[in-house]
Amino acid sequence: MAWKKVILSTTSDQMVFVQNTSAIKNSIIRLAFTDTDMAPTGPTGVFVLSGPNTWNGRIKKGSYMWYEEQLGGIFTYTSYDINTVHNYNITPVHKDIVTNNDVIDVPEGAYFVIQNKSDDSVFFSVNGDGTFVLTKNQMLSFSFTRDTQVRIKGTGKDISYYYSEAPSITQLSANVQNTIDNIKAAVELLKGNVVTRRELQEVNKKTYYDRYSADVSTILSVIDPTLPALSVELPLLETDEDFDSEPLREKEILDFIISVKYFNGTNEVEAVTNISARISKNDLVLPIIDMDTYDPILSMILEEIKLEWNEDQGTLLPTIIFGNWMNTNTSKYKNIKDMFKAPITVSLRVKSELAVWKASNKVFTPKNTNRLIHSNNKFNKRTHFATETSYSNLFTDISRTLYSKHKDIVFDIKSNLRATKTTDAGSNTDTYTIADANDKITVRLIKTPTAVNLEVLLKDITADDGLVLSSVTVEDLVDPYISFNLNLDLLEKIKTPRVINKTNNPYVFGTSLYIPKEMTSEIYTRLFERFITSSNSLGLIKIVTRKED
After folding, report:
1. Residue 395 in this model has a pLDDT that exceeds 50
2. Peptide bond before 506: cis, by omega within 30 degrees of 0?
3. How far from 205 is each of 208, 342, 355, CA to CA, in Å?
4. Which domain holds residue 192?
5. Which letter does DSSP use for residue 501 in this model?
6. Cα separation of 32 and 160, whole Å?
7. How would you classify the pairing of strands 368-373 and 285-287?
8. Are 17 and 144 in a shared domain?
9. Contact (CB, 8 A) for 14 and 58
10. Cβ-contact 355, 246 below 8 angstroms
11. Which of 1, 228, 266, 458 has the most CB atoms in a 10 Å sphere around its CB?
12. For the chain, what is the domain count?
């Protein structure tokens, strides 16, 4: 008989089911598949179906199915389209072999069909497990979810085998596949625009310094009128080792925010003061460097701060000491007992240049104790400056100290600040500048296509030899959220001397800033741009230097 042709789909792979539906036992259907419009010319690649045996498999689009009906065989088939496979791309294989203990390597995701075309039984195993037997013209089929070896046992037997993608393993609905493709595209886009967790953690560590700790608090429930002073001991603080914090050092500058909640009559009031101080191993009584409060009552009764610290542990135990107005009969405290009443909640935050602080449960043994003392006269001059005019009066009052160099090697200025951005199109360079009205202190961020550099210019100052730039702080006195600090001991790109250049006026510091892998200079330019666009002008520039050890 002549081969008859069935043209399968030209647009989609198909799953094909064929059966010899004849009831005649010895009837035969001969079955073959080609990728061209040419009938088989011999027995190679031909399956034989005796009644009522079946064959099924995945056929590539554009293939041809050929069949012959012999000895009463009846050809019956059905087929259906299969979506394009994305998980696997297996080229169909169809071979006739004469066995010689052959090993057939079937790839992951394949649908495998084997038929015995010999008169004798054929034995085989899958990955060496068990033994299957095929009688004459018998077929078996498998779907494999991993690379698999089919081992034929014995020699001289005729077999035929076929494999292609298995639809039961690889088939996905169009909607599911589209969703997966969209997710993959989104992930690839995300990978190209974000940093790794490790990089983020590294930057977070490097930029977390010089931030205030969380609050530590205590409550003074009862005021003893017999005491000359009220001491409020706050919980212990320690430097956080997770951020590679350094222990306290001689001449370390500590900044505090102290909150005091009290009752004025029946109304609860919260007063806050900002304090900067320097600790010392040798000088036990220290002046407060800087202090601002917005509450006249608190300014009258806050006497001192006692700092007990252990430099080996990196721990700090602060105590706030108030003058006991109930034990004082001076006119200064007249009627204050009705204006400042218990319960009193005292909270404190602390920061320093090279440490991140947290509450501590350590067993504390002080090694050094400092008492920070302030003058009430100086303190009261800093009570509640709410307008720009008030601040201007303050600046005039303390102008003699605006540009002076402190013992702790801090240069600072409070002024109406100018913040600008300029662009040089020829060199593709952006320059961000923040300076006071008289250019006493100028901070520049210079962004080029390949680097981001920081310059600090100090005009009309006297500085010792060997000073090294340590950090730069720019604060908006009205909006603290646009303020920022750059700790150059951590953010410098390449460790350089960073020693002050004293050959000219202004003195100049300069260094290149570190940009983490997969990030850009925007981690710095955004700080300056935010200050330029949002600053209320009234601000502070603080330049911290240190002696190069």
Report:
1. no
2. yes
3. 5, 40, 11
4. 174-205
5. B
6. 11
7. parallel
8. yes
9. yes
10. yes
11. 458
12. 4
Within 10 A of 456 (CB to CB), how many other CB atoms are there? 24
Can you spell out the DSSP letters for 6-57? EE--SSSEEEEEEEE----TT-EEEEEEESSS----SSTT-EEEETT-EEEE
pTM of the shown model: 0.37
288 vs 506: which has the higher pLDDT: 506
In this structure, the answer to whether residues 399 and 541 fall within a common structural domain is yes
Q: In which order are the strands placed within the sheet that holds 103-106?
A: 103-106, 148-153, 122-126, 129-134
Alpha carbons within 13 angstroms on the beta-carbon side of residue 99 total 25
DSSP three-state, residue 536? coil
Only one residue has tokens 């046992």, namely 153
Q: Are residues 76 and 178 in the same domain?
A: no
pLDDT tier at 407, thresholds 50, 70, 90: very low
260 in a structural domain: yes
- 523-540 burial code (b ≥16 CB/10 A, e <16): bbbebbbbbbeebeebbb
Assigned token pair, 437: 């009205």
390 in a structural domain:
no
State the DSSP code for 499. B
* Same-domain status, 284 and 327: yes
Residue 100 has pLDDT above 90, yes or no: yes
User: d(Cα 150, Cα 101) in Å, to the nearest integer?
Assistant: 10
List C-alpha distances in Å: 57 to 77, 93, 133. 12, 12, 21
How far apart, in whole angstroms, are the C-alpha atoms of residue 351 and residue 333? Answer: 33
Query: Is the domain of 279 the same as that of 179?
Result: no
Whether 332 and 257 map to the same domain: the answer is yes
Q: What is the dihedral of CA 452, 456, 457, 463, to 10 degrees?
A: -140
Residue 506 has a CB neighbour count (10 Å cut-off) of 15
Task: Let me know if residue 154 belongs to a domain.
Answer: yes
> Do 482 and 513 belong to one domain?
yes
**Residue pLDDT, tens place only, 438-484:** 899 999 999 999 889 999 998 887 777 777 788 888 888 777 778 88
Strands 285-287 and 148-153: unpaired
Which of 205, 224, 248 is the last residue before a domain boundary?
A: 205
User: H or E element: which one contains 378?
Assistant: helix 376-380
Contact 115, 134 (CB under 8 A): yes
Per the structure block, which two tokens stand in for 23? 């009831």
